[in-house]
Amino acid sequence: MLTEPTLDRLRALRLGAMADAYRTQLQDPAIGALSFDERVGMLVDAEHLSRDNRKLTRRLTEAKLRIPNACLEDLDYAPRRELDRALMRQLATGRWIAEHRNVLITGATGVVKTYVACALGQHACRQGSRTMHRRLPRFFQD
User: Fold this and answer.
1) CA–CA gap between residue 129 and residue 139 (Å, rounded)
2) pLDDT digits (tens, 9 = 90+) for 19-38
3) Which of 60, 41, 70, 80 has its CA nearest to residue 127?
4) Which of 54, 112, 81, 77 minimizes the C-alpha distance to 120?
5) Are 68 and 118 in contact (CB under 8 A)?
6) Which of 75, 135, 129 is nearest to 99 (CA)?
7) What is the C-alpha to C-alpha distance for residues 105 and 116, in angstroms, rounded to an integer?
8) Buried b (16+ CB within 10 A) or exposed e, 78-112
């Protein structure tokens, strides 16, 4: 079998992750125990995962989140924050996105408005949606 031409063709077809996974398979002696279908499945999974990761990275970059590593699971529900757990669980479902609604977050200084907005944006990106984080003055400028 001619490995290099196969790898070149995979790359020409823009299947770089599949080519990398194929090269890894060739170096693993235990891979011979797997069936052809299992090996092809592993290659397809590697390419699919790579593409999903690139899409997520692109969505997160385009969102321009101020706190890019914010996540809903890390929200601090301290009483002074006045965050409603039930509302946050409801927003986490993403139903508001499916219904083409926006989320406007208001509150006093220090109640984690920016963090909540970024966490919702991060979550929406992970669910496959594009998002945009803007402060109100900037929103009206754009």
Assistant:
1) 19
2) 999 999 999 999 989 999 99
3) 60
4) 112
5) yes
6) 129
7) 8
8) eeeeebeeeeeeebbebeebeeeeeeeeeeeeebb
CA distances from 63 to 54, 66, 72, 115, 123 (A): 14, 9, 16, 14, 12
What are the DSSP calls for 13-62, one per residue? TT-HHHHHHHHHHHH-GGGGGS-HHHHHHHHHHHHHHHHHHHHHHHHHHH
- Locus of tokens 């890390």: 74
Which of 10, 37, 42 has the alpha carbon at shortest distance from 25? 42
pTM of the model: 0.76
Q: What is the pLDDT of residues 81-139, one digit of tens each?
A: 778 889 999 999 999 999 999 888 888 887 788 899 999 999 999 999 998 877 777 76
Give residue for tokens 């090269």: 23
How buried is residue 54: exposed, middle or buried, by Cβ count under 10 Å (0-12/13-18/19+)? Answer: exposed
